[in-house]
Amino acid sequence: MPTKDQIIKTLKDRFGSAVIGSESPKPERLFVDIKSGKVRDISNELVAMGGRYLVSVGYDSIADNGALGMIHTFAFDRDSLYIGIRTSVPADNPVMDSITPDIPNAGWSEREYADLLGMKFTGHPKPKRLILADDWPEGIYPLRKEVPWNLMPPAAEDVAYQLDECPEGCSIIPVGPYHPTLHEPAHFAVYVDGETIKGSDYRGFMTHRGIEKLCQTQLTYNEVPFVAERICGICGSVHATSYAQAVESAADITISRRAEYIRTIMLEIERIHSHLLWLGLAGHLIGFDTVFMQSWRIREPIMWLGERMTGNRKTYGMIVIGGVRRDITPEIKDDILNVIQKVEEELLVVQKAIVGDTAIHRRTKGVGYVSTQDVVKWSLVGPVARARGVDIDVRRDHPYAAYDEMKFDVPVFNSNDVWATVLVRILEVFEAIKIIRQCLDKMPNDGPVLTELAAPIEPMRHGIAAVEAPRGEVVHYVITGKENSPERWRVRAPTYPNLQGVPLMLLNNQLADVPIIIGSIDPCFSCTDRMEVVDIRTGGVKVLAQDELETLSRQIK
Amino acid sequence: MWLTSKIKQVLMVAKPGVVTLKYPFVPRPAPENFRGQPYWDHHKCIGCGGCASHCPARTILVRDLCQELRVMVYDGSRCTYCGRCADVCPEKAITMTDRYELATGDKNDINETMELFMATCQRCGRCYDHETTNAIDKMTRIGYKYDNLEMRAVLPVSSEQFDMKLYEKTEKFKRPEKMGE
Amino acid sequence: MDILIVVANIVIFLACAPFFEGIVRKLTAKVHSRQGPPLIQPYLDLLKLLGKESITAGNWAFKLAPMMALASIITAIAFIPLGYTTNYLTQYGDIISVVYLLTLGGVSVLLGALSSKNTYAMVGASREMITMIMVEPVLAMTFILGAVKSKGLAIDAAVFSTLNNGYGWSYVLMLVVFLMALQAFVAKQPFDIAEAEVEILEGPFIEYSGPNFAMFKYYLMLKQMFYASLFVAVFIPFLATGSYLLNVLIQLVEILVVFVLIALTASTNPRLRIDQAMKYYAVLIVMSLAAVGLTAYGI
C-alpha cells in the first residue's frame, strides 16, 4: 500500500506540472492542488492505487481568485489516509472533465455542482438536474455567494422532470413521492415487466432545506452542530460529531480524551437504536409487523436512556466543537450498563427467532443482489457494502474519537443480499454493546469534557472527517471562514452513495421486493436532501409532483 | 421447523407482555436533566443577549426600544430545545424545565417576553463576553439590536446583494396560465 | 318462521363480523406487546367511514362494485346454514351457486380496482385475480368432497357431510388443506398480497374512501367470518346439540377459536411474494384434488 510520499511522488512523476503543490496539515490528511485539465486522469490514478471515492466538494471562491473550486476526496482505507485533490476552474468558463464515467458514484456530486454552482462537466453520462427544483430559474446558482440564502424565485408549474426512457414493453410503477415504503418524499419510477423490475429512475431532493448555505452564511461554528444534528432524525450525533471533527481537524484542536470517549459512547448508543429501528422497519416492509413492534420494544429503553443522559430521546445535542456538553456521572454509567445488558439479552432472543425463521429467509435471501465488484465500483458504504463482501468500516480503518483503543469485530458477509444486511446489522448491535462496555471501563478522567479555544479559528483551512454512521460512512468537509463561521460545509450522508446503487439492486427483482430493497439501505432522504437551496417553493414542487404522479398513474403502457 | 419457530415467536412475545403506556391518561414525568421548555428568570437576567447570540434556531429576539428598555422575546414555536441558551447564560437565568406537553392552539402560550430595564451599558455586550473564555463562543453580534419582533425574524448577519436583473436574464421560466392539465 | 332463521343468519353475521375483526386486532396487538384498539373499534371504523364524504375516482362501475361485493357475500351467507340446521333458502341453491356468489365478490373487487385506473390498483387487481384463480378451487373441492360423499349438489348435503357421514381420511386431508388455505381465503398474512400496504398501498382499495370503502371493509369482514364459519360447519360438527340457539352459540365460539388461529398466524408471518404464494397454492390444489379422489374411493 502506498504511503503519502509515494502517492505525491507517483502523481508528480506521472503528471508533472499538473500537480501544483500539496499540503498535509495532519499525518492522515493530504491535500493536493492540481490543474483542472488532468482531474480525470489523476482521479483514476488514485483509484488505481487503492483509493475509494468519497465525495466532491465544490465551492465559490470568486471573490478571492475569480474561480470555482472543486475538491474530489478519496479514502485509502488500509492507510488511514484521506486525500483531497483540489482544483479550480475560472468562473466565466467553469468547464472541467467529468470523472463519472470511471467513478460512477461521482455522478450525483457533479450534477449537484452543475445545479448549484453552474459548473459544466464534459462527458457526464446523465447531465440532468439533480438538486434544484424543476422550476428553479436556470442561470441562478444558489451556492454562489452573490445569491442570498433566502432567495425565493416565483414558482412555475409547467415544468416537470423528464424520467428516463422506459424500456420497451414495460410499464411504470411510481414509488413515491409519498409512499409508505419511503417515509420521506422521494420518487422512484420503477419500470416493470409484469412483476419483474427492468429498470428505475430516481428523482429526489424534494426536501432540500438549504442547510449548507444557511449555516455558511447565517450561523456560527458552534451553532452548526445543532443544525447538523437535525439533518437526520436517526443519526443526529453522527453528523454533529463528524462536523465537529472536521472543524477540529481544520483548526487543529485537540480535545480531551474523556470527551472522545463520551462521543464514542453516544455514537454507539445511537448505532444500537438505529439498527433496532431498521430491523423493525425491515420487518414492517416485508409485512411482518411482530418483528417491527418487538424490535422497537427493545429499542425503547435506549431512547429513555438517551433522555436521562442528555435530556432528549433522540436529538442528544451533546456534541459541540471542543468536546461534549454533558459528562457521564457514575450513576449514569451504571444506568447505561443496566440498559445495554437488558438490550443484549432481549436481542439475543429476537435474533434466535429471526435467524431461524424460514419465512423471513424466503423474503430476503437472494434479494437485492449486487456483486462485490459492483459495490467497490459504485463506492457503496456501510452495512450495504459489508453485506456484500466489502470489508470497510471507518471506525477501524480511520480511527476517530476513542475507537483506536476499542476492540471489536466488523461483521462481513458474502451472500450479497438483503438477508446479509439483516445479519450485519444485528451483529453490529452486539459489537456496539461491546464497545460501550469497553468505553465505560477504560474511560480516563483527564480534565474538562469541553476544551476551550484560546484563539479564533483561522480562515481558509480545510478539514475532512468521516464517521461510521449506522447506515454507513458520513463525510463532512469544512473550509474554515472568517467571522467565526464556516466558509464551506459539505455533508455527505451514507445514503448519498448508497441510493445511487439502488437501481443496481432493484434490477431483475420482483416488484414486491422494492420496499425491502430500498429499505435495506436504510435510506435517509433528509440526509441526502440537506443541501444549499433554501426553500424551493415547496408548494410549487408539490403541485408538480402530484401532477407527475397522476400522469404516471394513468399511463399504463 | 417452520412451526416451531412460529410457536417460539409467540412464546417470545408473551414474556414481556403489554409494554405500551396509557400515556395521555397516566402522566409520564420527564427525567431529571430533561431539556424541556426553557424558562427565563427575569430577576436574574441582565439582558446581555448571550442566549440570543447562540440560539441555533434564532428563536430569541432582542430589540432595544430605547436607551433604557430592552425587550427580549422567546418564540417557542421554533425552539428546538437544544438548551444552548441555558448553557451560555452567565447569570444562570435560564433553566430547562421538565415541561414537554406544549401542544397548543395559540402560539403565544409558549412564547415568553421580557422587558428589561437596562442600566447604562447596553451596546457592547461585554458582560457576556467577559464571562466566556471560549474563543469560539464569543458573541458575534454586539451593538445595537433591532430584531423584527413583529415578524419574529432576526436581522440577517450579512445583507447580501442580489441583482434582481438576473431573473430577467434567465431563460425557460414561463408561468402557465392554468394549473394542472 | 323459516324466513326468520334466514334473517337471523344474516343478522348474526352482520353483527358479529366486526367483532371478530376486533378480536383479531386486539390479539395482534398483544403479540406486538401493544395495548391495541378496543374490541368495538371495527364498528366505529365502519360508522366513521359511512359518515364521510363519498369520493369517486372512476365510472359507474366504481360505485357499483362495493354494493355488488356486499350483496354477493350477504346472499352467500343467507344460503349457508348456521347452527348446524338447514334454513328455508338452502334447498333453493346448490354448491355451485355459493361458489359463484363468492367469486362474484372477488370479481366486484376487481371491477372496482380496474375502474379506478390506479396503477397500484391494477397491480393489486392482477394479484387478486391470481389469488382467486388459485384459491377458489380449494373451496370448490371442499364442497365437492361433500357432494361426492352424498352424491348430490345440495348445500346442506355438502356442508353437513361430516355431520351425516362421519369422518374419513379424505376429510382429515381436506381439513389440513382448508386450514392451510384459510389465511389466503381471509387475505391475512402471509397472503395479504393483493392488499400489501407497504408495496401497493391496499392495492384494489386504494382509491376507495368513505361509504364505498365501508362497504368493502364490511365485505371483507363478512368474508372472513364466512370462511371461518364454513370451516367450523364442515369440519367441526362434533359439538352439535339439539337446540338451534345453543348450536349458534357453540358455532360462534368455535369461529372465535378459528379467528384466534388466524390472528396468530398472521402476526407471526411475513408477507409472501406472489410467485412464492403461487407455488404454495399449487400444492394446495393438488392436495385438495387428492382428497376428492380419496372420497371417490370411499376413504
Q: Choose one word for the global shape of chain B.
A: elongated
Unreliable stretches covering 5 or more consecutive residues of chain C: none
Beta-strand level of the residues of chain C, as a percent range? under 5%
Helix count of chain C, per DSSP?
A: 12
β-strand amount of chain B: 5-15%
Brief characterization of the structure:
The complex is a heterotrimer of chains A (557), B (181) and C (299). Chain B is of the alpha+beta class and 181 residues long.
Structure commentary:
The complex is a heterotrimer of chains A (557), B (181) and C (299). By secondary structure, chain A is of the alpha+beta class. Chain A has helices at residues 4-15, 39-48, 62-65, 106-116, 211-218, 224-229, 236-251, 257-285, 289-310, 330-355, 358-364, 372-377, 382-386, 394-397, 418-442, 495-500, 502-506, 514-520, 525-529, 538-554, and strands at 19-23, 29-34, 52-61, 67-76, 81-90, 95-97, 120-122, 171-175, 187-193, 196-203, 319-320, 323-324, 462-469, 472-480, 486-492. Chain A has a domain at 211-529: Cytochrome-c3 Hydrogenase, chain B (Orthogonal Bundle), CATH 1.10.645. In chain A, strands 1-2-5-4-3 form a 5-stranded mixed sheet. A 3-stranded antiparallel sheet of chain A has the order 8-9-10. Chain A has a 3-stranded antiparallel sheet with strand order 13-14-15. In chain A, strand 13 (462-469) and strand 14 form a beta hairpin. In chain A, helix 10 runs antiparallel to helix 15. The radius of gyration of chain A is 23 Å and the shape is globular. With 181 residues, chain B is an alpha+beta fold. Chain B has a domain at 30-140: Alpha-Beta Plaits (2-Layer Sandwich), CATH 3.30.70.3270. Helix content of chain B is 19%, strand content 13%. Chain B is built from 5 helices and 5 strands; from the N terminus they run αβαββαββαα. In chain B, the strands form 2 sheets. In chain B, strands 2-3-5 form a 3-stranded antiparallel sheet. Chain B has a two-stranded antiparallel ribbon with strand order 1-4. The radius of gyration of chain B is 25 Å and the shape is elongated. Mean pLDDT of chain B is 75; it is low at 171-181. Chain C is built from 12 helices and no strands. Chain C has helices spanning 2-31, 41-50, 60-79, 95-116, 119-150, 155-159, 161-165, 169-185, 197-200, 210-235, 244-267, 274-296. The longest helix of chain C is centred in the middle third of the chain and has 32 residues, at 119-150. The radius of gyration of chain C is 19 Å and the shape is globular. In chain C, 54% of the residues are buried. Chains A and B meet through helix 6, helix 9 and helix 10 of A and helix 1 and helix 5 of B.
